[in-house]
Recover the amino acids of this structure.
């Protein structure tokens, strides 16, 4: 791995290289340097099965980080190197941000010193997260360079439903006739038309695609030791999408009282304290660019993502567990049932969501 590090135009002498974090998609390492004045680095092997077009991923990341850096400079922000990621170029090709070695792609960024990640949310960190992801979208709202779709149709509900229906037709794993599968399919199809509202609005020109993060989990934010947000990380899925992606997907994981693969379905509930905190933070930083129809549809977004994830998990169950790692035969089915429960709970709470958004808007 030292040989790989040597391909990058980094400072200092490598002291150690150790695994970092708990990401499931890319492999990540911390590269420590000997000299106190040289930064430490984060080295990552990019998963080419999930991200086939590494060139596009790195081009997107380069545009996004350059744009954010420029905005922070204009705003006179101090400590910019801790507020946005810096990727290291190759030693013998200053245009290149990744190295290809034996069919594997590697990239390296500066390690942000004195930063911490959180795996769990509370209302305080949800509010911070809302503000951070809203600000991320706000900073990128005027990005002129068009970004590529690093995972095609990633959050396209119509596409995800087509995928599921294809898997139903093929029934490759012979699981279609199971009673639990049938029960979910009925609930899914009953909501299918309504849940494709975003794509319809998009076609009618009533909903713009914006630069979104598309993986808005709390562990994709770096905090400083005092709990303030430093910067948003894990930029592989940054791509054009409806704002619902960042808003809805955060709530999908954070507002669930249970983990998304918990089989304790009766314990699954959509937490309104997390909803309120995250929404307050998000509106604070995103209202400067959000259109009324985007705000109106935030309760829809809070339902769309449990629904979409239910569809995706059931699709994988029907095709025989090819996408998500499973540790028991019905793992994906349990996940799909869990997400359906979360959706039912979110549906019940829609009137309350509307009241909260109205109140937050009038307070801003
Ligand atoms: C995948 O691996 P992880 O947990 O970061 C998936 C997300 C899903 C999530 C569901 C590239 O993310 O879209 O919401 O699983 N990422 C990709 O657990 O498919
Ligand atoms: Mg991550």
């Amino acid at each position: 791995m030292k040989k790989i590090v040597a391909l990058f135009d980094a400072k200092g002498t490598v002291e150690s290289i150790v695994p970092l974090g708990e990401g499931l998609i890319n492999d990540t390492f911390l590269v420590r340097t000997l000299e106190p004045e040289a930064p430490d680095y984060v080295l990552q092997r990019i998963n080419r099965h999930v991200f086939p077009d590494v060139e596009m991923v790195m081009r997107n990341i380069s545009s996004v980080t350059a744009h954010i850096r420029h905005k922070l400079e204009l705003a006179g922000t101090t400590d910019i190197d801790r507020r946005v990621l810096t990727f290291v170029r190759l030693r013998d090709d200053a245009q290149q941000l990744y190295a290809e070695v034996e069919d594997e792609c590697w990239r390296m960024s500066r390690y942000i010193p004195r930063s911490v990640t959180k795996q769990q949310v509370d209302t305080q960190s949800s509010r911070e997260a809302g503000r951070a992801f809203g600000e991320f979208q706000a900073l990128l709202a005027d990005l002129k360079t068009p970004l590529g779709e690093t995972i095609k149709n990633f959050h396209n509900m119509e596409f995800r439903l087509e995928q599921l229906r294809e898997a139903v037709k093929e029934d490759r794993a012979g699981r279609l006739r199971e009673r639990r599968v049938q029960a979910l399919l009925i609930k899914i199809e009953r909501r299918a038309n309504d849940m494709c509202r975003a794509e319809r609005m998009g076609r009618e020109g009533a909903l713009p695609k914006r630069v979104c993060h598309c993986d808005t989990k709390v562990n994709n934010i770096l905090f400083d030791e005092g709990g303030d947000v430093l910067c948003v990380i894990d930029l592989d899925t940054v791509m054009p999408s409806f704002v619902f992606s960042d808003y809805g997907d955060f709530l999908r994981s954070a507002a669930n009282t249970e983990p998304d693969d918990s089989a304790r379905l009766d314990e699954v509930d959509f937490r309104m304290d997390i909803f309120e905190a995250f929404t307050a933070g998000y509106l604070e930083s995103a209202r400067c660019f959000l259109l009324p129809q985007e705000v109106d549809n935030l309760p829809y977004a809070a339902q769309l993502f449990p629904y979409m994830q239910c569809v995706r998990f059931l699709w994988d169950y029907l095709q025989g567990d090819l996408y998500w790692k499973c540790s028991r035969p019905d793992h994906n089915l349990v996940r799909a049932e869990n997400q359906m429960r979360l959706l039912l709970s979110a549906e019940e709470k829609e009137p309350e969501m509307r009241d909260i958004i109205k109140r937050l808007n009038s307070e801003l």
Remarks:
- The chain is about 45% helix and 10% strand.
